[in-house]
Design goal:
This protein is α+β, with helices and mostly antiparallel strands. It folds into two domains: 235 residues, no CATH class; 107 residues, no CATH class. 19% of the residues lie in helices and 41% in strands. It is built from six helices and 14 strands. Strands 1-2-5-6-13-14 form a six-stranded antiparallel β-sheet. The chain has a five-stranded antiparallel β-sheet with strand order 9-8-10-11-12, with no helix packed on it. It has a three-stranded antiparallel β-sheet with strand order 4-3-7. Strand 11 and strand 12 form a beta hairpin. Helix 4 packs antiparallel against helix 5. The longest helix has 24 residues. The two termini are 29 Å apart. 27% of the residues are buried.
Length: 360
């Protein structure tokens, strides 16, 4: 029996339930408080889209013009810049209760039949326990490498550098400091330094400090490039065939909203929709809907494609409840006192996953 929003049994049925582990599911049983009716919803399929991008930040060294002379290379960063590229896209379908597809399973007094639903009322199982899919856990962002501001070298300059007004002289002084640091590292690793550390831990700390100084002084000439991995999750409910902007990616701000024109568009397209057919018997004729049937979803399929700048990032055919239809199982399957059956349903699409005899 299909329900409309003014059915009072809905409130009563949802008020009496037992909580399953982690508050992810509820078990609904029939009694006089809910007029022996169990209310449930079938799902609509939504998409959880996880996008992994690489953020590259380039910082020019203030003395890049002297790099060839003092560090022997002209392969340096000449201009500050930031660049974002999408590396990977994953799409996971999941179900949420559809308020337009609510149903009533009417039982008789004394019935032991029960249903298992998600917190939002979406049907998961009949005469069986089911675990609602755990919500996606936010992944800890990857630790980004230390980014140079371009001024770290100032920690290691002397008074002569500060007093100088000539960039050429400053570059020379920085180069001399860089050579001193490199010589000190060599002496430590060879064991020829005037003041050798007393233990391995102290040696490790001294070498780490010298490496940090070397990197800062080198960056003053060659510049720096830091790379970080950034993840962002989007949700999307396909409703019809078509293509639209899901989000934008900007080299100035990374992930931006679909209506923020500072970024290049990343599109999501729903196509190749194939609607579900009603089940047929051995002769190929459509089966008739049982009386007072327990309704479940027959999902259709659609192809989900994400693209940007003419590049296909993801494309896969997926089952979706909203592009299908509904059918029903005979309620006697679940209310039989001698040989009751159980059924479990796909939490992403509402499709019948398994049906069998309840074993005590």
């Amino acid at each position: 029996m299909r329900l409309t929003r003014n059915i009072p049994v809905l409130v009563a049925a949802l008020a009496f339930f037992a909580s399953a582990p982690a508050q992810q599911t509820r078990t609904l049983t029939a009694d006089k408080h809910n007029e022996y009716g169990l209310v449930y919803s079938l799902p609509v399929t939504e998409l959880r889209i996880e996008v992994t991008a690489t953020k590259t930040v380039r910082k020019a060294g203030p003395y890049w013009k002297y790099a060839k002379k003092y560090i022997g290379t002209d392969k340096v960063v000449r201009d500050d810049g930031e660049e974002w590229t999408i590396d990977r896209v994953s799409v996971t379908p999941y179900g949420v209760a559809d308020p337009e597809s609510r149903w009533l399973m009417q039982l008789k007094p004394g019935a032991t039949t029960y249903i298992c639903v998600a917190d939002d009322g979406m049907l998961l199982a009949i005469n069986a326990e089911a675990q609602a899919p755990a919500p996606a856990k936010a992944k800890a962002p990857a630790k980004a490498p230390k980014a140079f501001t371009g001024k770290e070298y100032l920690q290691y300059v002397g008074e002569d550098f500060i007093a100088s007004q000539s960039s050429a002289k400053q570059a020379q002084l920085l180069a001399e400091s860089l050579m001193e640091v490199r010589d000190a590292k060599v002496s430590l690793t060879r064991g020829t330094a005037e003041s050798m550390p007393t233990d391995g831990r102290q040696l490790e700390l001294m070498l780490a400090s010298l490496s940090e100084q070397e990197a800062a002084l080198t960056a003053a000439f060659a510049g720096s490039e830091t790379v970080a991995t950034v993840q962002r999750t989007f949700t999307y409910r396909p409703e019809k065939k078509g293509k639209e902007v899901l989000f934008r990616l900007s080299d100035f701000g990374g992930f931006t909203d679909a209506d923020d024109y500072s970024g290049a568009p990343v599109y999501i397209e729903i196509g190749g929709i194939r609607e579900a057919s009603l089940p047929t018997d051995a002769d190929g004729a459509e089966k008739k809907l049982p009386k007072d049937a327990v309704m479940y979803a027959l999902p259709g399929t659609a192809t989900v494609t994400l693209s940007a700048s003419g590049r296909k990032l993801f494309s896969e055919e997926m089952p979706m409840a909203q592009f299908g239809t509904v059918f029903g199982l005979a309620p006697s399957l679940f209310t039989s006192k001698k040989e009751p059956s159980y059924a479990t349903f796909d939490p992403a699409t509402g499709a019948l996953r398994e049906i069998g005899e309840v074993k005590e």
